[in-house]
Amino acid sequence: MSDPNKDPVVQQFREQISDTDLAILDALNRRLSLVEKLHAYKRAQEYDVKDPSREDWMLTWVERANRGPLSPEAVREFWSLLLPLLTREAARLLDTESAAAPR
Question: pTM of this prediction?
Fold first, then answer.
């Protein structure tokens, strides 16, 4: 049996997957920066940070925008996990900035 680690096709697919992983990470970090700015603005305006109707809309929107092969259920599950995680991260960043700000 030959070694798949030496197969150039396998290597090419792995490189493309790695590049895609980095693009996903970059997109998540960009999204987090936007969420952080939005939360800071909402807090300054004394708005509620959490908007369940917007989150429901977002889940439906990304599910409908999906062209596959990811199933609609998987899209919904991914975003249902992602939104609270990014909300927590944005709050953590805001708390870190608040703690570092001079008083």
Answer: 0.79
